[in-house]
Specification:
Layout (H helix, E strand, L loop, with lengths): L2 H8 L14 H11 L11 E6 L2 H7 L5 H9 L2 E8 L6 H4 L13 H25 L3 E5 L4 H8 L5 E10 L15 H4 L4
Antiparallel strand pairs: 1-2, 2-4, 3-4
The structure holds flavin mononucleotide (FMN).
């Protein structure tokens, strides 16, 4: 059997506490260099990532997390702020030259922002798998003050926060037992 099946799926868990082992900027960059290959509608690149990996950055971030999440991010070597770019369509002519006017499809801002969020959410799933692929552990979190994170870390940009992902090396007690998943019998339809 392909060992990646265990490493990426069946044995892989969400991590809630990490060892003190550091993670380099090169390792963090290598995560993105895999994520960028995720397939998206019209090859749209809506995901943006802001890495918080200094003590000073953590001090700014932790008060913006739900209380129960603070200790988790405090132990992570880095916290990725996954964001969507509300102006992602600017780059479409480069990334999907087959449709020269692709940028104009998103002139309506409501439609553009909804698409940005949807595409970046798809890429966020790949992000978690990419963290595991480069040999690190991931703890995704939705429990934080989005407006606060936007103001503190993304102000003056067209980026808006979506999820956080704690990244590092899982400590031996850092993972929880697997909860049951929906069975194929319940989740699949056939025709
Ligand atoms: C988008 C997303 C948001 C999550 N938000 C939180 C969170 O705010 N706090 C937390 O402790 N866990 C959070 N989780 C972790 C999930 O509860 C966990 O991934 C799930 O129970 C599966 O656990 P497992 O990987 O160990 O099987 C989140 C996971 C995802 C993917």
């Amino acid at each position: 059997m392909n060992p990646a099946i265990n490493e990426l799926f069946t044995d892989a868990h969400t991590t809630y506490s990490f060892t003190s082992e550091s993670v380099t900027d090169a390792e963090l960059t290598s995560i993105y260099d895999l994520v960028k290959f995720a397939p998206t509608p019209m090859n749209s690149q809506a995901l943006r990532v802001h890495f918080v990996r200094t003590l000073e950055g953590k001090e700014r971030l932790l008060p913006l997390l739900d209380e129960g999440n603070r200790v988790k991010s405090a132990s992570a070597a880095a916290v990725a702020i996954l964001a969507f770019d509300t102006e992602f369509n600017e780059f479409l002519p480069d990334h999907f030259p087959q449709v020269p006017n692709a940028r104009d499809i998103y002139q309506d801002s409501e439609k553009r922002i909804a698409s940005a969020r949807e595409i970046a959410t798809l890429q966020a799933g790949f992000f978690i798998l990419a963290v595991r692929t480069v040999g690190l552990d991931a703890g995704p979190m939705a429990g934080f003050n989005r407006a606060g994170v936007d103001a503190e870390f993304l102000s003056g940009s067209s980026w808006r926060s979506l999820y956080l992902v704690n990244i590092g090396h899982s400590d031996p007690q850092g993972q929880r037992p697997r909860n049951p998943r929906l069975s194929a019998e319940r989740a699949l339809g056939w025709s």
